[in-house]
Structure formats: C-alpha cells, structure tokens
Sequence to fold (175 residues):
Amino acid sequence: MAENRRKKPNILVTGTPGTGKTTTSSSLAEATQLRHINIGELIIEKNLHDGWDDQFDCHVINEDLVCDELEDLMEEGGNIVDYHGCDFFPMRWFDRVVVLQTDNTVLYDRLSKRGYTGSKLSNNIECEIFQVLLEEAKESYPEEIVVALRSDTVDDITRNVASLTDWVRSWQPKA
Fold:
C-alpha cells in the first residue's frame, strides 16, 4: 500500500474558515520542512473547479480533479493539506487529521474582517457552533488519527505548532 512507502507523514489541517488553518499550516511547514498545500489556492491556480457559486460567494470545487492532482504528492508523503472540508480526501492519505476550533466570538470577528457578511458569515458561524468539521473528520477517518485543537489566540497556534512538530518528529512509517 502507498502509505507503507511514505518516509514522511501527511497531515490534514481542517476547520471552519477563519480558525487558523493557513497560519497553522504555514508555521508547521516551516518548523517541519513538510510541504504546505493550500487547497483553496490550488483550486484557483490549477483551475480545479466547476465555476463560481454566487450564493456562497466561492468556487465550486471539483473534488475528483483535486484528488487526481494530489495523488502522487500524497503517495510521496511529507504534506500538510490545508482545507475547510475533509470528507472527499481518501482515508489512506493521512496519518493525522487536525480540526482547528475557535470561539464563536473570535471567529465572528475574524470572518467579519475578511468581509464575510449575511448568510456566508452566519453559515460559517453555525458550522463552528455545531462542530460540523469535527463530526465530518470523525466520520471520514479513524478516530485515533483525528485531533481537535483550540485556535483562539497566537499562543494557541504556537502551542499547536509545537505539539504537531513533536508528533511529526516522532512519527514512524507503518510496517
């Protein structure tokens, strides 16, 4: 199997928009020398979408194209994948799935600063309140690889990066 050949782990960092996925992933990539793959940027850069959704004010991701684009990199290992969804990625790709969670007040402020308004803002806040991404991760991946981490402050992010860096350093390929 592909995961047995990897010499470095693959990590998925997921969570509601505004929880600190990109900040955490970038810092973790710098600390571990793993490759940071921002799926949102990849979708635009490689045209891996089916157009624009006016209602949600975002691109409509083509999940098959994204998975095809990533397959070889994921088999190689050493990746930090940063995206707000997680249920369409193959389970075999990841050794750790990190779900970042943020206090609703903090999240509201972060998303408002990004220009989120109306239903886009309320939908994302509701997604966090109901822990949609954590449930999605638990349903999509083995429970022992899913970890929820608080991401309210810079100190939280620093602590999360340190803890994940330790995990990466101690990771061993499956026999």
Summary: The first strand starts at residue 10 and ends at 14.
